[in-house]
Structure formats: C-alpha cells, structure tokens
Amino acid sequence: MRWNFIPRHEVGLGVVFLDELDLATTRLLQFPVAWTEIAPGYRHCLLRRFPYSVIYTLKSDDSVLIVFVFHHSGAPESWQGSL
C-alpha cells in the first residue's frame, strides 16, 4: 500500500530539523554503543521529532562516522547498497 503524503510546509522547519539532527549527533557521540546495531558494524540513532535515523559506524580510533541520514519511508535496507 502506498500512502498519499503531502509534505507539510512550515516556515523554519528546516532549522528545527537541523537542530534535531544536531541533538541526535550529540547523543550518539556521548553514548555510541547505546543504539541498536542494524547491520554488522552499523548502528542507528532515531531523531525524536522527525521520521529519520542517523546511521553510523564506530571507527577503530574511537571516532564515529555518520554514513547516512535515512528517512523511514524508504526501504529499510536500501542504504546498504550505497556502501
């Protein structure tokens, strides 16, 4: 079933999205192993207000590499084909 979705336009919503993305990034940097592993070596952190996940991997030097910011309406495994 395909939903007919008309995006809601709201002034300043892009800034709110970027703020939310910044908060998610801060959370995953503070607690990098707190989120679910969705593929070997890859985890995702959910944004609270928007239907997006930040998909990331932990590097050997204890840094974090953000691989994708993924909208939940896409096929769940489609990001893996881009690696």
What key attributes describe this structure?
alpha+beta; single chain; 4 strands; about 30% strand; 4-stranded antiparallel β-sheet; about 80 residues; globular
Q: In short, what is this structure?
A:
This protein is an alpha+beta fold. It contains 1 helix and 4 strands. 12% of the residues are buried.
Describe this structure in words.
- With 83 residues, the chain is an alpha+beta fold.
- It is 22% helix and 28% strand.
- The chain is built from one helix and four strands, in the order H-E-E-E-E.
- It has a four-stranded antiparallel β-sheet with strand order 1-2-3-4.
- A hairpin with a 5-residue loop joins strand 3 and strand 4.
- The longest helix has 18 residues.
- The protein is globular and about 40 Å long.
- 12% of the residues are buried.
